[in-house]
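Hi team,

Below is the intake form for Cationic amino acid transporter C-terminal domain-containing protein from Persicitalea jodogahamensis. Please confirm the fields before the structure is written into the shared record.

FORM ID: S-0412
PROTEIN: Cationic amino acid transporter C-terminal domain-containing protein
ORGANISM: Persicitalea jodogahamensis
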Amino acid sequence: MGEAHKADMESGGLVKTLGVRDLVSLGIAAIIGAGIFSTIGLASFNGGPAVSLLFVFTAIACIFTALSYAQFASTVPVSGSAYTYAYVAFGELFAWIIGWALILEYAVSNMVVAISWSQYFVSMLEGFGIKFPAWLSTNPITAAEAFTKLQTEGIDSLNIAEQNVALAYQNAPMIGDWHIIFNLPAGIITLLVTALVYIGIKESRTASNIMVVLKVGVVLLVIGVGAFYVKPVNWTPFAPNGVKGVLSGVAAVFFAFIGFDSISTTAEECKDPQRDMPKAMIYTLLICTVLYVLITLVLTGMVNYTELNVNDPLAFVFQRIDMNFMAGVISVSSVIAITSALLVYQLGQPRIWMTMSRDGLLWKRFSKIHPKYHTPSFATIITGLVVGIPALFFEMDFFVDLTSVGTFFAFILVCGGVLYLDYSGISEQSKFRVPYLNGKYLVGLGLIVAIVLLFIYGQDVLGEWRTASISYIFEHKILTIIFWITWIALSVMSYKYNFSILPVMGILTNLYLMTELGSSNWLIFVIWLVIGLVIYFTYGYKKSKLAQTEEV
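The structure came back. Fields below:
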């Protein structure tokens, strides 16, 4: 399987143009995007200043995963990210499942980023005194709900944002009984970024590098200037809503980090992927974690955490201290920053489809390389449509948690894949390997310590379990049960097979973070996987290269 992928890589027609600096730039472009400019506010509102620790915890989970990604990238330097790695480690069916999950991750992430970009763009125009029509910058679902609420409960029941979209619905042009409402800026930016990605990797790299320099400069400016306005009293209490409040921000915080795996989708356009990919992933995570922790501490130090439930927290804190010039600079910069995140995700998605198509699991047109631009042209166009059309008509909140579900799933399989590489001996070929720390006794010992700590400090949690009904446990706690069963199984297998502890910790930390996501997201994710399996067994299973080889 590895040789087949290598042959495809050599005949693919993609241009090898990316070095370590370019890869780090792409990683920072993906990570320092909508997360730091929008979702960080909601996470701080729920968890207080202690959210800075959640960034550290999430980064640790990502570092375990990044090391695993890096080992795979050095072993199989082919586009496709976790899909390719699952193909090599677990075979075709698992690879299809993970590829299908990655489609959800990348496409849904970009819908969130495009909608977030639209909000910042409209806000920026208002800062210059330009009023963008509300019916062209919101989604019909939110507008219709707000208008219904206005009709039934009166204007006093609506906050300012709801009043605006309700009026947008009321004043929107109509065709028959249909109100014409859609998010035009989200659609336009998706179209423009897709066009840039279509034209070529060099152009995308140049644009990304420029935007990254600008937005990292803005983040450093916020930290540097904001530090002088920090009031330590705002850091007390540090965790006002306890551990539960901090962990409620998992989806928002994790959404801020997921971009690092997009680096691995550009493996075939990297000059020396086996050397550069591992370095780029680690550098990216370290840089972004430090920036996230500092920015969270500055934000929660400048204003009380209770004021941070806003879409544009960086601009908001400077407005609060009457530094409107800084707020304006941040608003303009955030539009550029979020554009770069959109660019990286639009770059990654077509390359995953291209790799799946090469293996026969998707239609051949998805692997077609443009003769002039040397990009997966058809896959890029379809990506633009898949992201742009929903971004025109749906709301952002629906997508954030759903993105994290697919990502956690992919991360766990990549960490598990490294354990398989070690067990099967394939790791011997890897130019980069996850540092080996024998987990023979440590995994089981960690389980015992966790159980003891739970009985000492977690009586409130245990009390909740004792009073919960079977149906409640099945609906809301099933992932927690799976987490403990998985830890027990890994303890036994680590003792038996001498598993390395770092990939095991990657599996457990990602699985634990998954337990904090809502059950409704899991239901949608399961439905998505079922649809994917139907496509696989009706098309991919029969048409795949593996099936053709077996027939011969």
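SUMMARY LINE: Residues 55 and 292 are 7 Å apart (CA to CA).

Thanks, M.
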